[in-house]
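Board notes (copied after class):
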Amino acid sequence: MSPAHNKSPAVAAALAVLDAGGSPEKTTLRDAVRALLTDLAKRAPGRSVEVRVPPYGAVQCVPGPRHTRGTPSNVVEMDGVTWILVATGRLPWAEALAAGRIKASGNRADLSPYLPGQPDL
């Protein structure tokens, strides 16, 4: 589990609803997504990858060449539920990517080294 999961009531609440087979309320989902994006930015500081979870938030992270204008060359995008599951280690990155739940482009767009519970490739 990610450190944000241990500190964020919104992440805990969202996971409890998802575990029960439900859909988190919009505000809970938003707050959980933002807490986990903030956690990612702390674990992978940098500006070479833009991670987007519309409509809830986006962060730039991962060390490497800095993106300054236009569309970044390294972009990761997914829905809020997928982000919560991947960011807390409940859904493997590779599985979500293969299932089309994650859109990732660029040579730095693999976030698995920065996520909890990901198998070593």
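Comment from the instructor: The chain is about 40% helix and 15% strand. The beta strands are 49-53, 57-61, 75-78, 102-105.
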